[in-house]
Amino acid sequence: MSVQPERERVSEAGCWCCGGTFPEAELVRLGNHPEVGVCLRCARWLRRRAVQRFDERHPSPAARVRGAVQGVRAAVIRKGWHRRGALGAVLRWIDRHLP
Ligand SMILES: [Zn+2]
């Protein structure tokens, strides 16, 4: 009789936003509702939506700059430039560093 080595268990859970399955380390939990987990990509998307909503309610010069940047970002995505080879790689890198 042989003994099977115990496999390391990696718990995975679903993202409440996109429905994908992710390891626990790639989920962000809500403070008062820890049962709710959001994947890192969706958390980033939610942050952008939150900043956009905040800027709409609190106009400022910085909010206008962020709005202009988001307008350019939306145009790039609409034209599909973010999927074009080297140009797309540069645009995606810039996107990761946008406010
Ligand atoms: Zn997600």
SSE topology string: EEEEHHH
Number of strands: 4
Radius of gyration: 19 Å
Distance between the termini: 59 Å
- On the 0 to 100 scale, the average pLDDT is 87
Strand order of the largest sheet: 1-2
Indicate the overall shape: flat
Class computed from helices, strands and strand pairing: alpha+beta
So how many helices? 3
Low-pLDDT residue spans: none
- How many strands, what sense, and barrel or not for the largest sheet? 2 strands, antiparallel
- Percent strand: 5-15%
Bound heterogens, unique: zinc ion
Task: Tell me the count of domains.
Answer: 2
List the helices and strands and how they pair.
Elements: E1 12-14, E2 21-23, E3 27-29, E4 37-39, H1 40-57, H2 61-79, H3 85-96
Antiparallel strand pairs: 1-2, 3-4
Bound molecules: zinc ion.
